[in-house]
Amino acid sequence: MSIHKTLGEFIVEKQSDFPHAKGELSALLSAIKLASKIVNREINKAGLVDITGASGIENIQGEQQQKLDMFANEVFKNALMARGEVCGIASEEEDNYVFFDNQTSRNANYIVLMDPLDGSSNIDVNVSVGTIFSIYRRVSPVGGPVQMEDFLQVGRDQVAAGYVIYGSSTMLVFTTGNGVHGFTYDPSIGGFFLSHESLTIPKTGKIYSLNEGNYIKFPLGVKKYLKYCQEEDESTNRPYTSRYIGSLVADFHRNLLKGGIYIYPQTAQAPSGKLRLLYECNPIAFLAEQAGALATDGYNPILDLKPTELHQRVPFFTGSPEMMETAHHFMTKFKES
Ligand code: P6P
Fold it and tell me: Which domain holds residue 159?
């Protein structure tokens, strides 16, 4: 009987592939594994206990914080602090960054940005949700408090990124710059086992994912691309298929496996786009490029954008390279001032 490789065994085997490993990154990913198991357990019984639904508290985005959002934030924050490899975190659920001011953590080399539970409004209706994380080496002096500059680094400087998808199965998908690898959780053993090594997105696909309810306010280039997807043309396998779960991690994960494109452009409610650059777009963009996909703001690579604010939003396009090229063509041709 073949036993799949655990995450820890995989990292040991690929030690040379993880230039930052030296055990620190392995310990950091191990903290993420532990936290995701705890969150997974709560999500799986969410319907049975009073932990679903809104907390009555708003986050900095002015959005209703779901109880599980806050629970997941505390679980990941505590797991990362306890492991001693991280000196600070930023989170969608925290107004500002958090310095881990204890003897061990303040001398740590890494910072983490995260969306602890993305798509959490889907939990009450039993739809897949996810955790997204982004890891950098700190740039401020080791031993002192973390600074905003540690968190406003360009996405291309990430040392690792990944997501946990809490779906029909729970998976941890991550990259350290040497490919994208997926580990599936076996609750009967309590471990993550290698199930998708070197994930690579199909060069093209037939799936487009965006919220067409926002059509009226889409940029003209998005409207033109959407109509392109819906036209009949056998030679290019059109019309494509619309698939939109409303959970970035779930939509991205499906498109990564099957090919496709995900777009969240500027809309009336979100004139700069809805998704956050630091802890949604940058980590997904790092994974995308490592898997042979592209990720842009409609014009420029996400990973080259210089962040200016912790919770800043950007338009987000990511998917199969040939589909992204076509979308880019329409965005450029019909660019509005
Ligand atoms: P809308 C979830 O709130 C999220 O941040 C992403 O996970 C998801 O793709 C998007 O927003 C859904 O937004 O406006 O279509 O409901």
Answer: 7-196
Return the residue matching tokens 């496709």: 260
Assigned domain for 15 exists: yes
Query: Same structural domain for residues 163 and 219?
Result: no
Q: Which of 164, 168, 176 is nearest to 132 (CA)?
A: 164
**How many domains is the chain partitioned into structurally?**
2
| 83 and 41 part of one domain | yes
Residue nearest to atom 15 of ligand 1 (CA): 211
What number does the ligand 1 atom closest to the CA of 275 have? 5
Q: Tell me the per-residue pLDDT of 177-197, one tens digit each, with 9 for 90 and over.
A: 999 999 999 999 999 999 999
Tell me if 201 is assigned to some domain. no
Q: Specify the ligand 1 atom closest to the Cα of 121.
A: 3
Does residue 328 share a domain with residue 185? no
Q: pTM for this structure?
A: 0.95
Ligand 1 pocket (Cβ < 6 Å) reads 118-119, 211, 246-248, 251, 274-275
Indicate if 98 and 120 belong to the same structural domain: yes
Q: Is residue 33 helix, strand or coil?
A: helix
Residues 136 and 73 in one domain: yes
Q: For residue 234, how far is its CA from the centre of ligand 1 (angstroms)? A: 32
Nearest CA to 76 out of 100, 95, 96 is that of 100
* CA-CA-CA-CA torsion sign (218, 220, 222, 225): positive
Mutate to test the pocket of ligand 1, among 66, 217, 254, 274 (most ligand atoms within 8 A of CB): 274
